[in-house]
């Protein structure tokens, strides 16, 4: 009996593998009711402009389409990954051997002081639309690249604030067992500095967000503040080169970092400060380099490979740890490795 069970499991595993290997574009399109692209180069969908092809690639613009795409992938034992604006990911040179689901902008609903928005909507455009409707609160993130879903996943922020601060609730696709759609309260999302439950639990995927904002008649001034802040970024960040923005989280001040308290600001120490003090500004491996404008930016100098980036990041982390006893932690997500 035991052998027959083992053989049965082995047969099922082979069957799943067979099903995946012989699934084709037409099969997927019929099940998704959406166009599917084969061997789409993911470097075209990331800010870093690095990464190999996705075996299959589909775009979704609302929660039902996203849910269907995930459900189809799960039922067919097809590996999948959800990508938004691609502003904070590094994709392997080998790409992704499965289905990449790209969330793209969809509808935005405004009711009173609440905004309901799909995860694929562009964050800074969502903020400008909110301001145009006399709603404020998210201006601090007005120049952060990427999508709303990505901002929630990493609790993106600036100036001591995070996207999670303005959340009322999140529509979440829970992959545990059969995929299901759930509503998470702000508290359930466990927002922290550049962190959330979605980073910790890969079975939870952000599908939609409701932000609770504040009525504000002074919309023109809000836009001016965002535009002025953008000009400051242009002067202090290497925005002329492909990058993922700041690669590492800033370091939370603690007893372990007390010796560097003179570098601290608002309870954090800039990761760029450690990298700069380690003499790594301008350091290069292959086509990847530490920016000589802002040390926390890893940039694509023109022909970077993901492998160049991995080696460079390893050198930076090792040198900072050896010289300062500080362990840098990436903000960037790795895909296909």
Topology, element by element:
Elements: H1 2-21, H2 25-32, E1 37-41, E2 53-60, H3 63-75, E3 80-83, E4 89-91, E5 96-103, E6 108-111, E7 114-118, H4 123-132, E8 135-136, H5 148-153, E9 157-158, E10 161-162, E11 167-174, E12 180-185, H6 197-200, E13 204-212, E14 214-215, H7 219-236, E15 243-246, E16 251-252, E17 264-265, E18 268-269, H8 271-277, E19 284-285, E20 288-290, E21 297-300, H9 306-324, E22 333-335
Parallel strand pairs: 2-5, 3-5, 4-22
Antiparallel strand pairs: 1-2, 6-7, 7-13, 8-14, 9-10, 11-12, 11-13, 15-21, 16-18, 17-18, 19-20, 20-21
Give the gist of this structure.
It is built from nine helices and 22 strands. With 337 residues, the chain is an alpha+beta fold. The chain is globular.
Tags for this model:
337 residues, alpha+beta, Uridine Diphospho-n-acetylenolpyruvylglucosamine Reductase, domain 2, Uridine Diphospho-n-acetylenolpyruvylglucosamine Reductase, domain 3, Uridine Diphospho-n-acetylenolpyruvylglucosamine Reductase, domain 1, 3 domains, 5-stranded antiparallel β-sheet, 4-stranded mixed β-sheet, 9 helices, disordered N terminus
Give the end-to-end Cα distance, rounded to a whole number of Å: 39 Å
Q: What is the mean pLDDT? A: 91
The CATH class designation of the largest domain is Alpha Beta
Stretches where pLDDT is under 50 for at least 5 consecutive residues are: 1-19
Number of domains: 3
Please give the share of residues in helix. Answer: 25-40%
Q: Kindly name the structural category.
A: alpha+beta
Looking across the biggest beta sheet, what order are the strands in? Answer: 6-7-13-11-12
> What is the chains' assembly state?
single chain
The main β sheet shows up as: 5 strands, antiparallel
Gross morphology is: globular
- CATH architecture type of the largest domain: 2-Layer Sandwich
Our estimate of the beta-strand percent is: 25-35%
The count of DSSP E runs of length 2 or more, i.e. the number of strands, is 22
Count of helices?
Answer: 9
Rg of Cα set: 22 Å
State the CATH topology of the largest domain.
Uridine Diphospho-n-acetylenolpyruvylglucosamine Reductase, domain 3
């Amino acid at each position: 009996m035991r052998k027959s069970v083992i053989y049965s499991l082995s047969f099922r595993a082979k069957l799943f593998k067979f099903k995946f290997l012989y699934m084709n574009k037409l099969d997927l399109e019929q099940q998704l009711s959406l166009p599917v692209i084969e061997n789409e180069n993911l470097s075209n969908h990331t800010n870093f402009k690095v990464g190999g092809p996705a075996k299959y690639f589909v775009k979704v613009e609302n929660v039902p389409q996203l849910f269907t795409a995930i459900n189809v992938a799960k039922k067919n034992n097809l590996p999948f990954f959800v990508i938004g604006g691609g502003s904070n990911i590094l994709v392997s040179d080998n790409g992704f051997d499965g289905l990449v689901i790209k969330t793209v902008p969809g509808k935005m609903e405004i009711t009173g002081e609440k905004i309901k928005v799909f995860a694929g909507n562009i964050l800074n455009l969502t903020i400008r639309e909110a301001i145009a409707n006399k709603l404020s609160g998210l201006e601090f993130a007005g120049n952060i690249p990427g999508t709303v879903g990505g901002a929630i996943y990493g609790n993106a922020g600036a100036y001591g604030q995070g996207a999670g601060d303005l959340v009322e609730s999140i529509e979440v696709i829970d992959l545990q067992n059969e995929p299901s759609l759930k509503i998470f309260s702000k508290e359930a999302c466990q927002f922290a500095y550049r962190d959330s439950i979605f980073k910790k639990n890969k079975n939870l995927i952000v599908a939609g967000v409701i932000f609770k904002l504040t009525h504000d008649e002074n919309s023109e001034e809000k836009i001016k503040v965002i535009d002025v802040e953008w000009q400051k970024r242009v002067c202090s960040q290497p925005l002329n080169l492909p990058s993922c923005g700041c690669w590492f989280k800033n370091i939370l001040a603690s007893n372990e970092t007390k010796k560097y308290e003179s570098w601290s600001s608002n309870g954090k120490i800039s990761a760029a400060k450690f990298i700069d003090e380690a003499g790594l500004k301008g350091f290069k491996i292959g086509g990847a380099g530490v920016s000589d404008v802002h040390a926390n930016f890893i940039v694509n100098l023109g022909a970077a490979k993901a492998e160049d980036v991995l080696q460079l990041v390893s050198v930076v982390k090792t040198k900072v740890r050896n010289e300062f006893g500080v362990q840098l932690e990436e903000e960037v997500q790795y895909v296909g490795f």
